[in-house]
Structures are given as structure tokens and as C-alpha cells.
């Protein structure tokens, strides 16, 4: 009996998300002239989940809050940021204190901006990070192996960041996550500017991490790369999630995609139609009521400008649109 | 009228040439693709063509003449990481109008919002910053645009929009464009011709 109960809880644990983000909202306080303060909303009603052993891809509009979500999870937002909602990690609330305790250890970030590399520190020291003296030799060995696999020549470890090409910098950033023993890896644009061989290699690394039980979140504009390795794809727009889709939904010209924005995004890829829709993503305060995609949507109806569409479960995914059943 | 790199050789360190005897030429009005492996020297060549790196052998010439080192640079370079191209201590409006006052219609076509002008660079996303960099680089005095992976960091819709706008403007102003990208599909959609750096570089 007892052993059965134990198995049950273990199974439960497996299907529980390692990371749960619920109804997250984020604004920045901005100081205008004098003592005037304004609040700028950039994320609202955002929920996502990441599971151990699985890869979640986050795609979507530039400026939709993907990097800020990553920074919110790591607790590295600027001081004028106001964060609301709930982030749970391993069943417990992820407080700022906890974030600081586990970041870089249990949670690793591959940053989008290459300015995160310390310009005055040699590459190998940044990849290894701060380790105890007795581990340094071992870490150095691991780092060399990773660099070798990544086609980074031995002299690269002694270079400074400005001496690296675009693709080399990206490979160095990714190796910081590969070398960590994190349970949750958030990679913010890990692949831009990589040639095909390195791209596939990088994707395999993330796949390996997931296979070892890691929960992986890959933020990317390279949808084709995302489709090669992810389990679910979350589509962001203007600070919220419009759809969570499965890989199969992108087949057959994306006809099973649920949200008009996701379809437009798919059609805009150069290998598809390379077609741009008109207009730009709105700022949060430009849309007070109704669907955030309303302005640019070709399927809108009167209902769409009245009230924010709620999430619906459709075909094993979720979507926030009135016109889907 | 064309931009030419003639017999360009360059290395960052002595005895370590990255580029050896490279010849490349972009016509005005032409969109030329440049592809090659990571670390092979594409960005280095871009910097040389735009006059950011002068310590090379060989010549960069426009219409048979050396590019003037003073005044507005007719060869504008925009690269993948806009955050590296801006002064973090300046507000966006000052960054934007540093060289010339960028006309409102260009700002509109790039979807640059008024409220962004009062922000600091780190208060904008990567894609938003890149649109500033491009708006700033396309002036009537620009003769060539060197686009080193300029849309690698933006979403596909914004990428298609940016290239639609850029191609319109360069056609109107008869600007020649050198496009560096690892994305073959994009190169195929955009370019009249393509060169492989390896094929024109005799370094081994
Ligand atoms: N410190 C800040 N103050 C005010 N607004 C900010 C700040 N940081 C980011 N923003 C805004 O928040 C929005 C989301 O930014 P974020 O960097 O998360 O976008 P993103 O989805 O990662 O975009 P990209 O794909 O271009 O990297 C953007 O519109 C940006 O301008
Ligand atoms: N400032 C620098 N100092 C020393 N070496 C450098 C510097 N910048 C680049 N390099 C070296 O020059 C070589 C070519 O770099 P470059 O940035 O031109 O490559 P690239 O073709 O643009 O690559 P990618 O596709 O990865 O961006 C690389 O080996 C790089 O390490
Ligand atoms: S809710 Fe209406 S406006 Fe919004 S995406 Fe769906 S159809 Fe378009
Ligand atoms: Mg980002
Ligand atoms: Mg480069």
C-alpha cells in the first residue's frame, strides 16, 4: 500500500509543471518632468507553464514581453518595475529572495543581449562562473570539451568578448547554460546568426538538457528551429499569450493554427509567403477593452472590441480569440 | 556607380589574416547577398567597407574615388545588435537625430512611436531599437547600406515589414545594399545576386 501511494505522488509530481506563471502583469513607473509619475503597462494576464523534460518555445512579436518574462522569473527586473501575479517553482511560490538564491544554479539564463558578457573578463572565466577553487580544474575541462564541440578554437577561451564574431558570442553564451546543472533553463534567443551546422548542434544541446529532465524554455524568432525540438509553442503578442500550439499545428501551411496572429506570423516567414500584415503591435494602454489584435485582424467582428476574449481549449492547445470553436 | 572593395587584406593580429585579397563590388540599386560560415570574416568585411576599420590593405572606393573620411558617411552600416551601436547615456531622440533630423514619414513607416523617443535605449526591446538604427541610416545622402544580420533579432512579421520598407526606400533613393544573413530563405527572397565569402577570400 505504502509503496503504491509513493508511486502515485511521484507520478503526480511528474505531470506537475516545474514552473507556473499565473496572471502575471508588469508595469514600469516612469518619471516625467517634475514629480509626475506614469505607469507603463507592458505585460498583462500572462500565464505559461514549463514541465521537466519538456521544451516550451516562446515565439511572437518583438517587444511582446518575452525577455521581460525571463527577467521576471530570474528576479533581475529594474527597480522601477512593478510585478503582479504569481510565479510558482517546484510547487512553491518563487519569491524575490528565492529567485536570488537559485538563479545561476537551479535556474539558468542564456541572455539575449550580448552586452551581458563582462567586457573586461576573459571568455572562459565567464563560462565557468564562480566555482570553488577545487572544482576549477574540472570545470575548465568541461568547458574545453564544450568549446571543442562548438567549434570554438582553444584560443577563444582567452579572448575578450569584443574579439568574438556574432556567432561565436552566441555559442559562448549557450555554453554557459550547457555547463550549468540547472533544472530550468531559459534561453533568450540562443540561435540568431548561427550557421546551419552550429544551429543544429545548439538545438541538440537543448534537446539533451530536456532529455536529462531539465525544463527548457526557448525564446526565439526562429520558428522553424523551435518546431524541430519543442513540445509546445506559446505565441506572445503585446504582453500576453494569444495561443499555445502543438508542433503539428504548423503543418499544412499552418491551417490548424488557432489564432489569426499566429497564422500571420507563419505566413510572414521568408520560406512561406514573406507577407507582412499592416500596422504595429499596440502599446498596452492603447487598447482599453477588447481583443489586443483587433486593429490588425482580418476576421474581427463587433464582439471583438467588447471585452477581452478568454482562453479556450481547442484541439489540444489554447487560444484567446472569439472566432475559434 | 558602385562601392568596391579592392584587394582587401586584413587581420586583427599580426600573422593571422582573416581576409586575404578580397574583391567585392556592389552597384547602386543592387541588393547583393553575402554569406559564409560563422567567424569567416563577414562582419569584418562590412566594417572595412563602411570605414569603421582602416588598418587594412587594399582600397575601398566609390566611383573610383576614396570615401571621404569627413562628413556624412555615404556607406551606412547597421548590424545585428543595435544595443551596441547606440550610446546608452543618450535618449532615443538624441540618438535618432545625431547625424540629421530623421523625417517623420520614415519614423511612421518604421512604426516608431512618439513615446519611445523619450526613453533610454535599455527601455526598448531589441526589435524596437533596430528600427531606430535603420531609420537613422537611410538618409538622402546614403548611397550604400550594409545590412549585417539586421533582422535576425526581430519577429517574422516585423522582418517582412522592415525589408518591405527598406527595399522601397533604397529603390527610391537608388541605394545599393549588401545583405549579410545566415538565413538562405531570406537571402533568396531579397537579393539580386549572392556571393560566398569563402569563394572570394584566399585565406586558408
Ligand atoms: N525598463 C523599461 N522601461 C519601459 N519599458 C520597457 C523597459 N524594458 C522593456 N520595456 C518595454 O517592454 C516591452 C517588452 O520588452 P521585451 O524586451 O520583453 O520584448 P521582447 O519580446 O523580448 O522583444 P524582442 O523580441 O525584440 O527581444 C517593449 O515594448 C519594451 O519597449
Ligand atoms: N575586435 C576583434 N579583435 C580580435 N579578433 C576579432 C575581432 N573581431 C573579430 N575577430 C575575429 O575575426 C574573425 C572574423 O570575425 P567576424 O565577426 O568578421 O566573423 P563573421 O563572419 O561576421 O561571423 P558570424 O557569422 O559569427 O557573425 C573571428 O575569428 C573573430 O574571432
Ligand atoms: S478575437 Fe476577434 S479581433 Fe481578436 S483575433 Fe479573434 S477574431 Fe480577431
Ligand atoms: Mg527579447
Ligand atoms: Mg558577423
Largest interface, C-beta within 8 A: A-B, 41 and 36 residues
The DSSP helix count of chain A reads: 10
Helix and strand content put the structural class of chain B at: alpha/beta
- The order of strands across the largest sheet of chain A is 6-7-8-3-9-10-12-11
Q: Write down the domain tally of chain B.
A: 1
Tell me the series of helices and strands of chain A, N- to C-terminal.
HEEEHEEHEHHHEHEHEEHHEE
In short:
Helix content of chain A is 31%, strand content 24%. With 325 residues, chain A is an alpha/beta fold. In chain A, helix 5 crosses helix 6 (166-179).
Question: Would you give an account of this structure?
Answer:
The complex is a heterodimer of chains A (325) and B (204). With 325 residues, chain A is α/β, with parallel strands linked by helices. Chain A has one domain: P-loop containing nucleotide triphosphate hydrolases (Rossmann fold), CATH 3.40.50. In chain A, 31% of the residues lie in helices and 24% in strands. Chain A contains ten helices and twelve strands. In chain A, α5 packs across α6. Chain A is globular and about 65 Å long. The N terminus of chain A is likely disordered. Chain B is an alpha/beta fold. Chain B has a single domain, classed as Rossmann fold (3-Layer(aba) Sandwich). Chain B contains seven helices and nine strands. The longest helix of chain B is centred in the C-terminal third of the chain and has 18 residues. Chain B is globular and about 50 Å long. The two termini of chain B are 32 Å apart. The model of chain B has no long low-confidence stretch (mean pLDDT 92). Classes of the chains: A alpha/beta (325), B alpha/beta (204). Chains A and B meet through α6, α7 and α10 of A and α4, α5 and α6 of B. One adenosine-5'-triphosphate (ATP) sits at the interface of chains A and B.
Amino acid at each position: 500500500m505504502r509503496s503504491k501511494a509513493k508511486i502515485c505522488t511521484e507520478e503526480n509530481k511528474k505531470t506537475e509543471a516545474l514552473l507556473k506563471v499565473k496572471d502575471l502583469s508588469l508595469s514600469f513607473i516612469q518619471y516625467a518632468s517634475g514629480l509626475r509619475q506614469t505607469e507603463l503597462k507592458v505585460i498583462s494576464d500572462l500565464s505559461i507553464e514549463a514541465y521537466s523534460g519538456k521544451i516550451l518555445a516562446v515565439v511572437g512579436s518583438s517587444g511582446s514581453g518575452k525577455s521581460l518574462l525571463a527577467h521576471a522569473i530570474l528576479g533581475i527586473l529594474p527597480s522601477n518595475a512593478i510585478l503582479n501575479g504569481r510565479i510558482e517553482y517546484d510547487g512553491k511560490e518563487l519569491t524575490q529572495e528565492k529567485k536570488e538564491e537559485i538563479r545561476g544554479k537551479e535556474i539558468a539564463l542564456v541572455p539575449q543581449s550580448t552586452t551581458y558578457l563582462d567586457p573586461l573578463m576573459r571568455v572562459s572565466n565567464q563560462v565557468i562562473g564562480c566555482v570553488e577553487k577545487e572544482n576549477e580544474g574540472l570545470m575548465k575541462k568541461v568547458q574545453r570539451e564544450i568549446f571543442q564541440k562548438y567549434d570554438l578554437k582553444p584560443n577563444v577561451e582567452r579572448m575578450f568578448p569584443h574579439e568574438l564574431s556574432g556567432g561565436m558570442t552566441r555559442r559562448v553564451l549557450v555554453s554557459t547554460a550547457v555547463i550549468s546543472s540547472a533544472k530550468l533553463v531559459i534561453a533568450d534567443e540562443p540561435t540568431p546568426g548561427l550557421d546551419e551546422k552550429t544551429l543544429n548542434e545548439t538545438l541538440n544541446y537543448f534537446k539533451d538538457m530536456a532529455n536529462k529532465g531539465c525544463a527548457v524554455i526557448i525564446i526565439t524568432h526562429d520558428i522553424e528551429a523551435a518546431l524541430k525540438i519543442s513540445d509546445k509553442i506559446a505565441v506572445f503578442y503585446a504582453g500576453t499569450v494569444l495561443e499555445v500550439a502543438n508542433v503539428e499545428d504548423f503543418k499544412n501551411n499552418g491551417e490548424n493554427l488557432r489564432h489569426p496572429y499566429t497564422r500571420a506570423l507563419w505566413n510572414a516567414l521568408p520560406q512561406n509567403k514573406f507577407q507582412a500584415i499592416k500596422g504595429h503591435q499596440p502599446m498596452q494602454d492603447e487598447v482599453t477593452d477588447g481583443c489586443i489584435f483587433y486593429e490588425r485582424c482580418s476576421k474581427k467582428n463587433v464582439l471583438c472590441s467588447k471585452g477581452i476574449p478568454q482562453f479556450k481549449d481547442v484541439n489540444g492547445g489554447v487560444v484567446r480569440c472569439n472566432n475559434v470553436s | 556607380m558602385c562601392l568596391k572593395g579592392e584587394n582587401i587584406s586584413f587581420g586583427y593580429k599580426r600573422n593571422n589574416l582573416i581576409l586575404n585579397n578580397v574583391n567585392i563590388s556592389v552597384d547602386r540599386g543592387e541588393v547583393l547577398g553575402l554569406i559564409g560560415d560563422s567567424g569567416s570574416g563577414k562582419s569584418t568585411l562590412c566594417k572595412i567597407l563602411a570605414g569603421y576599420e582602416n588598418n587594412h590593405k587594399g582600397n575601398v572606393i566609390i566611383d573610383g574615388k576614396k570615401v571621404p573620411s569627413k562628413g556624412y558617411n555615404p556607406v551606412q552600416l547597421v548590424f545585428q545588435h543595435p544595443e551596441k551601436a547606440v550610446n546608452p547615456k543618450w535618449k532615443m531622440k538624441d540618438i535618432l537625430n545625431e547625424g540629421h533630423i530623421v523625417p517623420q514619414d520614415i519614423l511612421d513607416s518604421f512604426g516608431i512611436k512618439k513615446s519611445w523617443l523619450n526613453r533610454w535605449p535599455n527601455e526598448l526591446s531589441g526589435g524596437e531599437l533596430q528600427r531606430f538604427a535603420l531609420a537613422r541610416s537611410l538618409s538622402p545622402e546614403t548611397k550604400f547600406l550594409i545590412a549585417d544580420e539586421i533582422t535576425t533579432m526581430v519577429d517574422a512579421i516585423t522582418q517582412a515589414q522592415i525589408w518591405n520598407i527598406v527595399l522601397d526606400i533604397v529603390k527610391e533613393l537608388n541605394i545599393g545594399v549588401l545583405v549579410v544573413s545566415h538565413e538562405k530563405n531570406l537571402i533568396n527572397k531579397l537579393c539580386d545576386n549572392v556571393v560566398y565569402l569563402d569563394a572570394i577570400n584566399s585565406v586558408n
